[in-house]
Each structure stands twice: as C-alpha cells, then as structure tokens.
Amino acid sequence: MMSATILYIEDNEQNLYLITFLLENKGFRVCAARDGREGIESAARLLPDLILLDIQLPLMDCYEVARRLRDNPRLNRIPIVAVTSYAMAGDREKAIASGCDGYIEKPINPETFVQEVQRYLPYGKGGEEAP
Ligand code: MN
C-alpha cells in the first residue's frame, strides 16, 4: 500500500495534535495548515491524497475553502472530508453542498477515526502499516 499524504486544515492545536498522532501512527504522512488560505496554498504545493477540513476556521470559513478547492482544476478531485461538530447538524449539509465528500463528527472516536478517513481514499492508498 502506498503511503498517503493528508493535508489537515485546523486551527485548534489539540485537535491537530491528536489527529496527526492517530494518522502518523498508522503510517500516513500528515501536513498541517492553520487557516484556509494557508490550506489552499499547501494543497496546491503538496497535491495531497486527501484533505481534512475543520469546520470552524479563522479568516476564511471552511465552506469557502471547499468551494475554492473545487474550483481549482488541479485540486478538484482531491477528496475533502470535513471535521464537524456533532452538535451542529446544519454544518454537515453545508459542508457537502460546498463540495466536501463527507464529514467526520467531533469529538472524534480515536478507535475508528483512521478507518473513517481511509474510506475516502482511492483504492491502494493508505497508511504504510494498513492491511
Ligand atoms: Mn477550528
């Protein structure tokens, strides 16, 4: 299995730490961006296999980030998975409408998180240690 690169756009240090830990532990490469603008620049530079997108970001909201990624012909086929808050049901529909492929609810379940991410990756792409 080829090791996948995941770009995680997240401003919260605790979420960044936990999710990076979980993914790296399974052999994924993780790159972080702290806001939408940095995220779009990083996506263009890295061409990651998947983008994890926090729903609440400073400067540019995540729906705008998703729309801009979808409007970019070089980036518009990269799966985008929103990381949404369980309490905010409307966020999930807005995330899909703005171009995200799916969402994972916060608080995340550390036992199943990596498997949930894996579902959105192309066949044969995953962590180095994945079966
Ligand atoms: Mn946030």
What compounds sit in this structure? manganese (II) ion
Helix-and-strand structural type: alpha/beta
- Content of β-strand: 15-25%
> What is the fold named in CATH at topology level?
Rossmann fold
CATH class: Alpha Beta
Summarize the main sheet: 5 strands, parallel
Distance between the termini: 8 Å
Order of helices and strands: EEHEHEHEHEHE
Q: What overall form do the CA principal axes indicate? A: globular
Give the count of structural domains: 1
**Taking all residues together, what is the mean pLDDT?**
93
Q: Got a strand count?
A: 7
Radius of gyration from the alpha-carbon trace, in angstroms = 13 Å
Give start-end ranges of low-pLDDT stretches. Answer: none
The name of the CATH superfamily reads Response regulator
Portion in helices: 25-40%
> Biggest sheet: strands side by side, in what order?
3-2-4-5-6
The number of helical runs is 5
The CATH architecture would be 3-Layer(aba) Sandwich
